[in-house]
Design brief:
The protein is an all-alpha fold and about 220 residues long. The protein has twelve helices and no strands. The protein is elongated and about 55 Å long. The chain starts with a helix and ends in a 7-residue tail after the last helix.
């Protein structure tokens, strides 16, 4: 039987955030140089949940020093490290290295400067979670089979989503546009966040996102 969610979070919850940051990224950390993936995790976590850094360091070190034995594996009561390009024999040393690098970051107290734009897929989704939910859920390649056009998809999102999340999405869109990305940056951003379609008609990505944010800000659900 698998672990209960509360037990999983206590043992591996923050470790999972760290390791997930490496999906699609090389695990090429060195003692004096965190990888791009770890820099993204440190940057985002320092500015949003700095207390979680010490939790990550402790969980990584505990897992590395006490890897799951056969019984825990048979019961499913362990964290399965996803495929990140390292062999099983390399995983333990890599986890210790991550714990050391996070500890160095905490002890130095040097908060990474926020990037103008996220640098990895994990960081995009960590920074703009509701925008990722919106684009990935309503604007996949299946959208034309479900909705008549982009406007209908936006309306469906707004009708079926809690008002606080709708407001959050409008805010995330405005935050993204306020960073001043060019059209190429925005095309990359929406692709990383799950959009698989082009903006409607002759809209630029920036123009369409701005329109969506404005529409959502004045939207009233059908049941109101």
């Amino acid at each position: 039987m698998s672990m209960k969610p509360i037990d999983f979070d206590r043992r591996y919850g923050e470790m999972d955030h760290v390791v997930s940051a490496y999906l699609g990224q090389p695990a090429d950390d060195a003692q004096d140089r965190p990888s791009r993936a770890l820099r993204a995790y440190l940057r985002h976590t320092w500015h949003t949940r700095p207390w979680a850094l010490s939790v990550a360091e402790q969980q990584l070190r505990a897992y590395a020093h006490n890897p799951p034995g056969r019984l825990r594996q048979r019961l499913g009561e362990f964290y399965p490290v996803p495929e990140i390009g390292l062999s099983n024999s390399e995983i333990q040393a890599w986890l210790v290295l991550l714990a050391d690098l996070i500890k160095q970051s905490i002890e130095s107290g040097e908060v990474p400067r926020p990037s103008e734009l996220p640098e990895t897929r994990w960081e995009w989704h960590a920074h703009f979670p509701e925008l990722g939910q919106f684009l990935g859920g309503w604007f996949s390649q299946d959208m034309p089979d479900e909705f008549t056009d982009h406007e209908a998809a936006v309306r469906d999102y707004a009708d079926s989503t809690d008002r606080t999340l709708v407001a959050r999405l409008a805010g995330e869109i405005r935050e993204l546009l306020a960073l001043g990305p060019n059209e190429a940056d925005l095309a990359l951003a929406v692709a990383e966040l799950g959009m698989e379609l082009e903006p409607p008609g002759d809209h630029s990505t920036a123009g369409w996102l701005s329109t969506v944010a404005d529409d959502l800000s004045h939207f009233r659900p059908e049941y109101a």
